[in-house]
Amino acid sequence: MRVNPDELTKVIEERIKSYESGEIKEIGWVMQVSDGIVRAYGLKDVMTNELVEIETSEGEKIYGIAMNLEEDNVGIITLGDYKGIKEGDKLVRTNRIIEVPVGEKLLGRVVNPLGMPLDGKGEINTDDFYPIERKAMGVVTRKPVDTPLQTGLKVLDALIPIGRGQRELIIGDRQTGKTAIATDTIINQKGKNVFCIYVSIGQKSSSLARTIDNLEKYGAMDYTVVVAADASDPASLQYIAPYAGAAIGEYFMFNGKDALVIYDDLTKHAAAYREISLLLRRPPGREAYPGDIFYLHSRLLERASRLNENYGNGSLTALPIIETQANDISAYIPTNVISITDGQIYLETGLFNAGVRPAVNIGLSVSRVGGAAQTKAMKKVAGSLKLDLAQYRELESFTQFSADLDESTKKQLIKGEKLTELMKQPQYSPMEIEEQVAVIYAANEGYLDQIPTDRIGDFERQFLAYLKENYRDTLNKIRESKDIADEIKKELNEAISKFLNVFR
Ligand SMILES: Nc1ncnc2c1ncn2[C@@H]1O[C@H](COP(=O)(O)OP(=O)(O)OP(=O)(O)O)[C@@H](O)[C@H]1O
């Protein structure tokens, strides 16, 4: 790019002027502006990712991030409406990277990725600011995941458990209940001392509004922050949104608390970054994504961690969401994120349409570290459940030949069918861990065998109501001891037998 001598003189003059006035601030000039990308000259010492202020001729201030540092110009992504920017407008360095307000004052609020309120509830008065980009905590500061993060969903807490500080991917086609799992998990954190951050990236405003409504309806906004950059926001805001969410979560983690952050969804995040990269003329790679697309998500997800006692014992759990096309989990972005996370919850359209909701494909879903954090009680009951469901999956394809099957295979199939039915759970009805243990225990002990499959939902509901009324103590014992000792088993057996006499 050629710089003409007039422009150079202008820069030098401006520098001399600012020196005389006593404030030394590096300034530059807009050379070109298109599609939200500003090319500027004069910002010789600007740092990568530094925030710069663009002053338009109308006196408006627009912020941007220096992304491309080239020999004779700087490529800047603008963080707002860039329509007012003209060639020749002034840019000023800020010597800072972007920061967001953090802290408990944000709870219950909906903010954009710069921390500005979007909910019309007034200013957020906080003195704490965190940079949106931060190097993930090192290995000496961490400890293994050892505490469960209860989702309140039987199928997850029993079979694909998540631990505090873990990164578990939620992956599936569109409309398979990905957001539903995330919101149910947030709703279940009520009273469990986990602060939640829901980051919405590139979603329709209507979907976001529905999610916020539901969080409010179930009282979850009291401990939740929503960071939103919807589909109509510029790609630059969508790009920084998850980093801002991570920074808000880190505040809680560094202060010894537990936090949960949901990135909904990283597919759109990758697309926003691709848009920015192409406009910045970075070389495109596979599927036109830039070469550092892996780093985009790995540096984000590495920030989720479980700190050890010397660092305050806090944790940040991340649940990123990825949308697949036609169930293809081996596509570029999905495989990247699968390899970064500690497991995935795989949702399937086929199951969803067949009424198995949450539509978790148990065979393809794993949690690589959460098992270590599962309570003893859950571990004991989930063990045989896993085995029965795995056997059921193997035999499932034979169901069409049911007439020719031997007795034991038929029995296995029926049991599997009942367990699958038991794993179903409606939205917005998270269950406490002791309730989950009790119903799964009943299933393991074969009590469901006498109940027709279409009545399993009724059985579960009525049985839990019965337990709460007549066996509160037993439930409390499971919760407190986190185990299911022989004495508790005896009480449960007694409860189930008595309940079956009154079950209609
Ligand atoms: N467990 C469930 N029981 C009943 N309905 C459910 C359940 N989970 C999700 N749904 C319904 O399925 C629909 C899709 O759910 P959701 O919006 O969570 O899916 P998604 O995969 O996040 O979709 P999108 O592709 O729009 O992001 C919603 O209408 C939701 O109410």
- How far apart the termini lie comes to 81 Å
Strand residues, percent: 15-25%
Uncertain ranges: none
Helix content: 25-40%
Task: Name the descriptors.
Rossmann fold; 504 residues; Lysin; 15 helices; 3 domains; ion transport
Description:
- It holds the Pfam family ATP-synt_ab.
- The chain is α/β, with parallel strands linked by helices and 504 residues long.
- It has three domains: 5-97, Elongation Factor Tu (Ef-tu), domain 3, CATH 2.40.30; 103-374, 3-Layer(aba) Sandwich (Rossmann fold); 377-502, ATP synthase alpha/beta chain, C-terminal domain (Lysin, Up-down Bundle), CATH 1.20.150.20.
- The chain is 39% helix and 18% strand.
- It contains 15 helices and 16 strands.
- The protein has helices spanning 5-20, 154-159, 178-188, 205-217, 235-254, 266-279, 293-301, 332-340, 349-353, 376-396, 407-423, 433-444, 456-470, 472-481, 486-502, and strands spanning 27-34, 37-41, 50-55, 61-69, 74-78, 90-97, 99-101, 110-111, 129-131, 169-172, 194-201, 224-229, 258-264, 315-323, 343-347, 366-367.
- The strands form three sheets. It has an eight-stranded mixed sheet with strand order 8-12-11-13-14-10-15-16, sandwiched between helices. Strands 1-2-5-4-3-6 form a six-stranded antiparallel beta barrel. The chain has a two-stranded antiparallel sheet with strand order 7-9.
- The protein is elongated.
- The chain starts with a helix and ends with a helix.
- The protein binds adenosine-5'-triphosphate.
- Residues 172, 174-180, 207, 323, 357-358, 425-427 line the site of adenosine-5'-triphosphate (ATP).
